[in-house]
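Human: We require from you a protein record containing the residue sequence and its fold in token form, and nothing else.

Assistant:
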Amino acid sequence: MTIAANLVIFGATGDLSRRMLLPALYFLDADGQLPEHLRIIGAARSGLSDDAFRQMAREAVAARAETIDETVWTRFCARLAYRSADLSDDKSLKPLCELLSDQKAREDIFYLSISPSHYTDACTALKSAGVLNAQSRIVMEKPIGHDLASSRAINACVASAFPERHIFRIDHYLGKETVQNLLAMRFANVLFEPLWNANTIDHVQITVGETIGVEGRRDYYDRFGALRDMVQNHVLQLLCLVAMEPPAKFDADAVRDEKVKVLRSLKPIGARDVRTKTVRGQYGEGVIGGQSVCSYAQEAGGGTSEAETFVALTAEIENWRWAAVPFFIRTGKRLADRRTEIVVQFRDVPHSMFAGSAENDMIANRLTITLQPEEQISLTLMHKTPGLSASGPRLRPLPLNLSLTEAYKLHQPRRRIAYEQLLLDVLNDDATLFVRQDEVEAAWTWVDGIADGWSQAGTLPQTYPAGSWGPPGVFALTERLARTWAA
């Protein structure tokens, strides 16, 4: 097992580092999962001392942990150091290089917790500073570019400094327990695989709904919108895990090979299809949680914008397993509920033996995989209602629930941060839950086709009230194919 000696977090004073990375690393240390000699080095433009950085880290951990174990903290604190660095100037990396060079044989991980617009600057600076060696690895957050061309440019620059096997492109959704459980459910149980195809599945729904607005990211959303921000990475990753073929084994190349096949099988959506297969929306004023909220146009910066905060799509996968099975996708800000879930809707039974009024109670089986707000898996089955009936058995749907919170509450009282698993995998040089370059480019190819179709067709976002489930067209999207959203 390959373990890194130094983890350098660029952007260590930023929001992601404070909310996720530093707490996740502390929890890994508490669980005995960090290598004994690992150093965690914060790097940013701010001129902090080691002690000031450690105090910032303690405050970050305290915001996520119910209590801080002082023994663990003493050990974790000893790992922490800080060096000021500006990735636009390789000369500013000299103090960091000097710190790293005190170890002759070392393996370094460089985590870019910075704006993706600075990725090329970062790789250029690291190369010029002479800090890289054959074991160096790099971790990058999404999005990798804003379209296929920019993604390729970034990937080319990163590839000039790091081999593909040492590049870890993070999608934090892949670190969630329920997402990994989807793989276990599909491929560790004989029950589902014979049914996991167009013969028995009617359609699939993927919902990623948020009640918050853009939260100060108006400038970012004006440039990216929900299609590029959410669909290109999070949503398509979930789609791939649902639709992929069984990998030969659970390793990086085998899993990612199958995901790429799904992305390359997606039927393009162009200008002729965007009006029937897509919905663009932008939230207006409304009510969330009993509180009035402003419209997107009134967010910081103000003014009109053609950026979408909501997207719904009908995706089709052109292969034998999924032919004629629609995948309905929706994601957006300021929606009625905070919910991330996958609904696999099975077909009706081909013939009902339950005559009379009972036949009206028949509901097709449904598998619901919920990622948030609570992680659980539910399978709806038909069940006889207790009691007597002169007209035959009365049926009703009942769920079989697998709640991770309930099932493991005695063994795992704390809900883990998704980054814990991903950081552990980076430290162990395991790229299975990370995104490969050809995956990124295949996803951008499909998404760019939709964006180009919107442009050619003049499709502008429809306004929807905050606190709703999007524009009216989102319901027509499913009804056009005689389906309805699960909720």
